[in-house]
Design brief:
Layout lengths: L2 H5 L3 E2 L3 E6 L2 E7 L4 E5 L2 E5 L20 E7 L13 E2 L11 H7 L5 E4 H8 L4 H12 L4 E4 L4 E4 L2 E7 L15 E6 L9 E3 L5 H10 L7 E3 L8 H10 L3 E4 L3 H5 L4 H4 L3 E4 H4 L2 E5 L5 E6 L2
Parallel strand pairs: 7-8, 8-9, 13-14, 14-15, 15-16
Antiparallel strand pairs: 1-4, 2-3, 3-6, 4-5, 10-11, 11-12, 12-13, 17-18
Helix pairs in contact: 3-4, 5-6
């Protein structure tokens, strides 16, 4: 849709990609190959990068790469996914909203949730890619819901409550203006298990949340900013004391893991190690995981 997208020959991703039509499809599975592309019905994997700078010898030598082709029956409709209720965009960094148009074109979407801070970034004129993306979203006719701290709404059996950002409160960075939300069952009492979605919040936002939400306990927590370790973030994890932790992160942060002391006995799903991580909370509030991609 844009000149930037037309010039881009690949996108980052991990573990799998799929091309489907009603009744059948083909999935390409891989073990750690990052670059991929899809154009005019052809799926591709970028096996090596081999740049000349800054290391002219990068990627030389023998490589062992694993991938598999998986033909399958059906598509997302056969799996029961005929629409999306809500897409929540946490903040105005390109890697958090760039692919949403493609999703909406593929799967009917009832609403997109944006924070008041996101809309302010789009209005201030300094981030043209954000304002142009928002214009295209309006042109697609998808309803947009603006949210800030204190807002709540229901999606089916789920209730969302926004903890951050505060409307019109300045934030030091775009990351610190990320949406932070508690998600739980509509019938849950206040002390029942919840899921905390934390976006890319950093020191400033976490410090504010530790004061404003002191005493909050959660069952499942997403580590902030893709598992970027910071002392205040580790303290926040200890405050919340989740039973399960989801860390969307790359191998460098996992291999140099600094989170273990803060995570304690919590079960931790890490995307670069486990692939897709699925967590369940049953009607009695018990938390479990239903499988990992090995």
């Amino acid at each position: 849709n844009t000149s930037w997208e037309e010039a881009r020959f690949e996108v980052p991703g991990r573990r799998w990609m799929d091309l489907s039509q009603p009744g059948l499809g083909l999935a390409v599975l891989d073990a750690g190959i990052v670059g991929r592309n899809a154009r005019e019905g052809v799926l591709g994997l970028s096996l090596l990068r081999a740049p000349h700078f800054p290391d002219p010898s990068c990627d030389r030598g023998e490589h062992r790469l694993r991938y598999a082709l998986l033909p399958h029956d059906g598509d997302r409709r056969a799996a029961g996914v005929d629409h999306l209720d809500t897409i929540v965009v946490t903040h105005a960094n390109t890697d958090h909203f760039d692919g949403i148009e493609a999703v909406i074109r593929t799967i009917p979407t009832r609403r997109v949730v944006l924070s008041s801070a996101f809309l302010e970034v789009a209005r201030d004129g300094r981030h043209r890619n954000v304002s142009e993306w928002l214009e295209r979203l309006h042109a697609m006719g998808v309803p947009i819901r603006e949210v800030a701290r204190g807002d709540a709404w229901r999606d089916g059996d789920l209730r969302w409550r926004i903890l951050h950002p505060v409307r019109d409160e300045p934030c030091r960075s775009i990351n610190d203006a990320s949406v932070v939300a508690l998600v739980g069952h509509v019938d849950d009492p206040p002390d029942r298990s919840r899921v905390l979605i934390s976006g890319d919040v950093q020191d400033e936002a976490i410090a504010r949340l530790r004061v404003r939400e002191a005493g909050t306990e959660v069952a499942v927590m997403e580590l902030p900013h893709h598992g970027s370790w910071r002392p205040v973030a580790a303290a926040w994890v200890r405050d919340l004391d989740p039973a399960m932790i989801v860390q969307s992160t790359g191998p460098d942060r996992w291999w140099n893991d600094r989170w273990r002391p803060a995570c304690g006995d919590a079960w931790r799903g890490v995307t670069c190690r486990d692939g897709r991580v699925s967590v369940t909370i049953d009607a009695d509030g018990r938390v479990g995981w239903i499988g990992r991609d090995e």
